[in-house]
């Protein structure tokens, strides 16, 4: 019998970790956080212990039900299948496809191109432009896609996995000073989501490892 | 996103390869591409996402074009070796005949094309014996053969099988 709460290995500012924090909050799953600082000590994700937990040396990783899962969307889909209410994916397969399409666009098409380990391989003076390009290319496509999928939220009128990906990516966009004027649909959906409790409690400014100066 | 693949099916168009595959799985459930057990499904998605989100986007054409030409090969090789280092480790606990257990899953559909990319970028596969042996076993299966890049309608003559 597995005892104890699930354990989330997370960095306050990691957009991928934030996605999972939102999912855990929405599903009312109580968990412990083990902060992994991606910058201190040369990056705590490179420690032997953490590498054994997640060979990709990335956050998030979730210890739950006796297993460890990484890759944020794999974690969220596992939570959805084992704790199915409230839903994070619609019932209709075509709407589910839209949710996964948007989630993959962000989690596979934007974020990996502007994460810390990739940016470190780009010359310092080019890093901001590189990150901005990754985000604007993706947001150009996403803004268009949302024209046919969005209701109140990314896909229809219920919060889905796509929304869990959107909000952290918009936060990254703001951190990289991306002009969001060309993306009114993304912006308005983001605003609506940010007032929801699950998006607030999981926010980078309210985490156990949030630095004092950034704390809400 | 100005990328392939996109699939027009059942009156809709889906893009993002894993979203397409999950849709096919949900609407045409046999033969299965994902196990029934949620923990094994998590392993399948974890491996698929590692490849489709953690390796391939970093070495695809549009990203490579942003890297100085003399750096492109190294860049692509780094993306692949970082991911394969992790994947080889993960497979120690998930793999049977194939990536997760003994049935072909979505993870295997991601593995084979990524190994082909690795070969194209001259990545040394010696450090990845599990990846290599699973890849070999998959390549003999008919679905992996008929879908191979060397047998497509648009395969250039000089690369045709």
Radius of gyration of chain B: 16 Å
* Name of the CATH class of the domain at 36-147 in chain B: Mainly Alpha
Shape of chain B: globular
Biggest interface pair, residues each?
A-B, 39 and 41 residues
Helix content of chain A: 40-55%
Given as residue ranges, the uncertain stretches of chain A (5+ residues, pLDDT < 50) are none
Oligomeric nature of the chains: heterodimer
* Total tally of structural domains of chain A: 2
Number of strands of chain B: 2
Can you give the helix content of chain B as a percent range? 40-55%
| Morphology call of chain A | globular
Report the C-alpha radius of gyration of chain A, rounded: 17 Å
**In this structure, how is the largest beta sheet of chain B organized?**
2 strands, antiparallel
Second rung of CATH, namely the architecture of the largest domain in chain A? Up-down Bundle
Q: Mean pLDDT across all residues of chain B, rounded?
A: 97
Cα end-to-end separation of chain B: 31 Å
> Largest beta sheet of chain B: what is the strand line-up?
1-2
Distance between termini of chain A? 38 Å
- Strand portion of chain B: under 5%
Unreliable stretches of chain B (pLDDT < 50, length at least 5) are none
Pfam family, one (chain B): GST_C_3
GO molecular function (chain B): maleylacetoacetate isomerase activity
Keywords (chain B): Phenylalanine catabolism, Tyrosine catabolism
Pathway (chain B): Amino-acid degradation; L-phenylalanine degradation; acetoacetate and fumarate from L-phenylalanine: step 5/6
């Amino acid at each position: 019998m597995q005892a104890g709460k699930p354990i989330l290995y997370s960095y306050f500012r990691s957009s991928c970790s934030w996605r999972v924090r939102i999912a855990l909050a929405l599903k009312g799953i109580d968990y412990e956080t083990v902060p992994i600082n991606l910058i201190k000590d040369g990056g705590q994700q490179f420690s032997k212990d953490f590498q054994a937990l997640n060979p990709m040396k990335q956050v998030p990783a979730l210890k739950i039900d006796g297993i460890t899962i990484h890759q944020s969307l794999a974690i969220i889909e596992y939570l959805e299948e084992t704790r199915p209410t409230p839903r994070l994916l619609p019932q209709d397969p075509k709407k589910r496809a839209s949710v996964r399409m948007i989630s993959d666009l962000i989690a596979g098409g934007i974020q990996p191109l502007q994460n810390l380990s990739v940016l470190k391989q780009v010359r310092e003076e080019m890093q901001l432009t590189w990150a901005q390009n990754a985000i604007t290319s993706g947001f150009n496509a996403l803004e268009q896609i949302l024209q046919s999928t969005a209701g109140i939220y990314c896909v229809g009128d219920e919060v889905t996995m796509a929304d869990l990906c959107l909000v952290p990516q918009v936060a990254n966009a703001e951190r990289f000073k991306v002009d969001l004027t060309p993306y009114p649909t993304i912006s308005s959906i983001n605003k609506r989501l940010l007032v929801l409790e699950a998006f607030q409690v999981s926010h980078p400014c309210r985490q156990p490892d949030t630095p004092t100066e950034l704390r809400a | 996103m100005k990328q392939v693949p996109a699939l027009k099916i059942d009156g809709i168009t889906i893009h993002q390869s894993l979203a397409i595959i999950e849709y096919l799985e949900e609407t045409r459930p046999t033969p299965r591409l994902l196990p029934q057990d949620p923990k094994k499904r998590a392993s399948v998605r974890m491996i698929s996402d590692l490849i489709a989100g953690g390796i391939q986007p970093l070495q695809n054409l549009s990203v490579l074009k942003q890297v100085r030409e003399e750096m492109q090969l190294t860049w692509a090789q780094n993306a692949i070796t970082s991911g394969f280092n992790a994947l080889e480790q993960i497979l120690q606990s998930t793999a049977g005949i194939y990536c997760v257990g003994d049935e072909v899953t979505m993870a295997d559909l991601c593995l084979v094309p990524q190994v082909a990319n690795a070969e194209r970028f001259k990545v040394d596969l010696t450090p990845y014996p599990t990846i290599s042996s699973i890849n070999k076993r998959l390549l003999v299966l008919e679905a992996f053969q008929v879908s191979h890049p060397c047998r497509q309608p648009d395969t250039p003559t000089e690369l045709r099988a």
